[in-house]
Amino acid sequence: MHTDLVAALDIGGTKIAGALVDGDGRLLVRAQRATPAREDGDTVMRAVEEVLGELTAAPLWARVRAVGIGSAGPVDASAGTVSPVNVPGWRGYPLVARVRAATGHLPVELIGDGVAITAAEHWQGAARGHDNALCMVVSTGVGGGLVLGGRLHPGPTGNAGHIGHISVDLDGDPCPCGARGCVERIASGPNIARRALEGGWRPGPDGDTSAAAVAAAARAGDPVAVASFERAAQALAAGIAATATLVEIDIAVIGGGVGKAGEVLFAPLRRALTRYATLSFVQRLTVAPARMGTDAGLVGAAAAALSRAAGATVAGV
Prior knowledge:
Elements: E1 5-11, E2 15-21, E3 27-34, H1 41-56, E4 64-71, E5 75-76, E6 81-82, H2 95-102, E7 108-112, H3 113-124, E8 133-138, E9 142-148, E10 151-152, H4 183-187, H5 189-198, H6 211-219, H7 223-247, E11 251-255, H8 256-259, H9 263-276, E12 286-289, H10 296-310
Parallel strand pairs: 1-4, 4-7, 8-11, 11-12
Antiparallel strand pairs: 1-2, 2-3, 5-6, 8-9, 9-10
Helix pairs in contact: 1-2, 3-10, 5-6, 5-7, 6-7, 7-9
């Protein structure tokens, strides 16, 4: 029996989660801290080191052979640095070197959080058994990752598959990234809610103006809420179809908070895909909701570390 383990870190603007993970993707030991996102970079790193401290103190640590990190981005895997948009204290921060120092200089694999979730969905979730897949996280932002030829395809810096910043509306609204009409500017949760409010939708007595509240209104038949989700679905379909045409994926998996909206999103998305994915080699493209849930980042970071530890694909990753 292969008994080696890997350590996994999932670093976001809200929490820093860590786990020791076996070759079947089971999380055997867990640790977590809140992300001190508004503090300076070294304070954020101390929270990471506290999570690692709990993991290294576990008896199972002796079996750990590598560390995988899935981080909010942008990341630069080639330089070992991270610059998460929602953690302003980290700009070009040397995360890989710091994690190596805290773990006895184990090998460290860094990928973006969208790529990590893609690795998880391909290993154990909705993209399992698919050699060519796009996985998307549609929430506050829109991220993603690619599996091509049966292998995770993070690209040189770890950001490949970042579908949120494909432009699908040439003269559309300016996006914070600097471009115009990006998928994220139309399909992210805050933008779905913004568009609904601008169109005259009003929240219920609880005052909830989230995309989830818009989804509930759309399910109840509110035409403005329905239209906002249809516009988001159209943007997602255009981005997915462009990706499929470029690299021949056969499934797009959608997770994140907006992905949980169900048929309010998926029904218009499937309809829109028939209008955008028209060439013969992309007509069989399917879309599916993500299956991995809140542990996806950890499982995906572990998958990347297992691949590195083995020097090859592991369990189909």
